[in-house]
């Protein structure tokens, strides 16, 4: 379960109550009855905000445990930060926090959602807002600090916490350990690397055709197009066996994400795993329990995890190519999720691909006129590439991969600013702003490659 600390900055001296300035000397010993009364008046005002904020947080994020801390002095703040050194970040509510308190929170170096109440913290917010820009902070100043708009920023911190709770299994015969450790350090995702031979011996080889047959039959029944049953059925059945094997693997390893080096393990020079995972991944997204990714691509897996945790959107890797004469991008791969958002179910076909040399590819038809936000990540160098396109059609053809989503974009800009590898993960909708914000909290540079 995700747990986040909420730090309320509430020193009693400031604009809201007695305008005595942000001094803490009155809190280090006894105070007169009159001063104590001033303090209590302010804390009553602050307490009303605190209860409203906590109540609304629980309503907005029922699966998150929020732990409140009330910093009336710098010592209170130090105690809270000491107790929460392992937190993924902080939700900070500035009810009357002086810049020294804010600077102390920022010095911890963690992602921060910073919400300042206008009358209590708004003046200081104007003064230290440029300071916030130098850190992984999303900030807002408003009198409505318990509003959905203000507290909606907390979803970005929740997404980072869920990344840190993710355990992904990578199945590959390549030594990816150094690369995966760097990706893990910069994203929080934990990886287990398993060889293809071990996976086949322990899991895939143990699944029988009889177990897999009902799953394969359901896939075929749901397909709108299945042109070569005699050639395709053996491959579809292998993909169903792979689906069962992957579920057993992830259950055993208590993992919630997986990526397989499908090309490397079924190369022309030697076959280790004789099943393609395209239909397997389609079903895993439909199940909603695990996040899959193609080609042992941890970068694209991070993009898909962000899509799920932040946007509730399913995505997978594609190989984009451009057509400068038409101004279009062709996002091709051998599948895309057929349930890209809750309540949406797209039509799919099970077809041959790569000029008829593979038989269990998936053609998915994305809705014409919809926006796609394509994300490419270089987690080692902390870079996120983003572009937005608009779907103009879907192509069903034998060359290359089975799915080909066609979309309009600024292709000349893309060709000149491309980076972070070939893969892009298309997420249904225009999510440019949300991705910029989560990248800021992650400390990632954003390159808007269509601008």
Quick structural gist:
It is built from 15 helices and 20 strands. It is of the alpha/beta class and 451 residues long.
Low-confidence stretches are: none
The N- to C-terminal Cα distance equals 39 Å
- The tally of helices reads 15
Query: Which CATH top level class of the largest domain fits?
Result: Alpha Beta
CATH architectural group of the largest domain:
Alpha-Beta Barrel
Rounded to an integer in angstroms, the radius of gyration calculated over CA atoms is 26 Å
Count the strands? 20
Average residue-wise pLDDT = 95
Q: Any idea of the CATH topology of the largest domain?
A: L-fucose Isomerase, Chain A, domain 3
* Approximate helicity band: 25-40%
Indicate the overall shape. elongated
Number of domains: 2
> Pairing-aware structural class of the strands and helices?
alpha/beta
As a percent range, the share of strand residues is 25-35%
Query: Can you summarize the main beta sheet?
Result: 7 strands, mixed
């Amino acid at each position: 379960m995700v747990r986040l600390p909420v730090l309320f900055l509430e020193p009693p001296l400031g604009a809201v109550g007695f305008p005595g300035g942000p001094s803490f000397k009155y809190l280090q010993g006894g105070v007169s009855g009159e001063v104590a009364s001033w303090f209590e008046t302010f804390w009553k005002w602050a307490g009303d905000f605190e209860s409203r904020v906590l109540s609304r947080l629980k309503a907005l994020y029922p699966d998150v445990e929020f732990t409140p801390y009330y910093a009336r002095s710098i010592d209170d703040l130090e105690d809270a930060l000491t107790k929460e050194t392992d937190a993924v970040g902080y939700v900070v509510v500035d009810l009357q926090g002086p810049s020294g308190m804010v600077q102390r929170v920022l010095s911890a170096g963690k992602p921060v959602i910073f919400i300042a109440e206008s009358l209590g913290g708004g003046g200081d917010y104007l003064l230290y807002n440029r300071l916030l820009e130098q850190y992984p902070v999303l900030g807002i100043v408003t009198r409505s600090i318990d509003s959905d708009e203000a507290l909606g920023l907390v979803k970005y911190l929740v997404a980072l916490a869920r990344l840190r709770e993710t355990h992904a299994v990578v199945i590959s015969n390549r030594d990816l350990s150094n690369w995966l450790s760097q990706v893990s350090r910069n994203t929080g995702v934990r990886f287990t690397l398993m060889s293809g031979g071990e996976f086949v011996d322990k899991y895939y080889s143990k699944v029988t055709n009889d177990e897999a047959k009902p799953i394969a039959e359901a896939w075929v029944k749901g397909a709108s197009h299945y042109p070569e049953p005699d050639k395709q059925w053996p491959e579809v059945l292998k993909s169903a066996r792979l689906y069962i094997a992957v579920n057993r693997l992830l259950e055993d390893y208590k993992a919630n994400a997986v990526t397989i080096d499908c090309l490397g393990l079924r190369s022309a020079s030697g076959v280790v795993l004789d099943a393609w995972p395209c239909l397997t991944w389609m079903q895993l997204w439909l199940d909603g329990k695990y996040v899959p990714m193609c080609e042992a691509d941890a970068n694209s897996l991070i993009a898909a995890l962000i899509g799920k945790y932040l946007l509730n959107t399913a995505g997978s890797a594609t190989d984009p190519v451009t057509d400068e004469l038409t101004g279009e991008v062709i996002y091709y791969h051998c599948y895309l999720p057929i349930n890209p958002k809750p309540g949406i179910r797209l039509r799919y076909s099970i077809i041959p691909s790569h000029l008829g040399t593979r038989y269990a590819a998936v053609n998915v038809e994305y809705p014409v006129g919809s926006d796609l936000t394509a994300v490419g990540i270089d987690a080692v160098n902390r870079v996120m590439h983003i572009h937005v396109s608009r779907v103009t059609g879907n192509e069903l053809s034998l060359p290359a991969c089975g799915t080909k989503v066609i979309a309009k974009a600024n292709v000349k800009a893309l060709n000149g600013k491309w980076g972070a590898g070939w893969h892009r993960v298309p997420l249904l909708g225009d999510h440019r702003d949300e991705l910029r914000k989560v990248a800021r909290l992650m400390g990632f540079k954003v390159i808007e490659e269509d601008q």
